[in-house]
Write a structure and sequence with these properties.
The protein is α/β, with parallel strands linked by helices and 199 residues long. The protein has helices at residues 13-33, 46-61, 75-86, 104-112, 135-144; strands at 40-43, 65-70, 90-94, 117-121, 148-152, 171-175, 186-190. Helices cover 34% and strands 18% of the residues. α4 runs parallel beside α5. The chain starts with 12 loop residues before the first helix and ends in a 9-residue tail after the last strand.
Amino acid sequence: FGDLYGNPSSMHAFGGKVANCLNKAREEGARFLNAEPDEILFTSCATESDNSAIRGTAEHFGKELKVITTAVEHPAVLQPCRRLRQLGHETVELPVDGLGALDLNRLEDELRKPAAHTLVSVMWANNETGVIFPIEEICELCRRYGAIFHTDAVQVAGKLPVDVRKVPVDMLSMSGHKFHAPKGIGIFYVRRGTKLKPF
């Protein structure tokens, strides 16, 4: 942001210094999540990371993709999911109870229904109620039924342990300013091998 402002993709030494800083940041982000550096992508914010997960999966699989989310997601997730519904995708918004809890039996019922491909996007912790969803159990259900799982982890990053080897989500979104990084930095974790089309 000061002395180093060159293009990190360029071949000259000035840009190369910035590329070194980016590589170091990517390694630090990977250690934070217990991921591999090539599984870390930088975005402008968690909204862009969420959109990349949802739209990128839809772009890869097309209309055969079914999307399951919850009615209490952040607009960064709900809006792209609702847009996919307008475009002809089957989408499901699971309700929560009076305490903000998600019924995992209803999620499993939806996962059991035939679908060529399914994406589940559930936030790790709710930004308004503070309710922490059982991400480990949701992840297990998704793996059991072959669904791709994305979680918006904005509200837990830096507050709870986030280990993508212990909780093997396929994609995860974080926002840097939530744990004292400069504004305008998002992290998008994509597990190696996850089917995703850049847009």
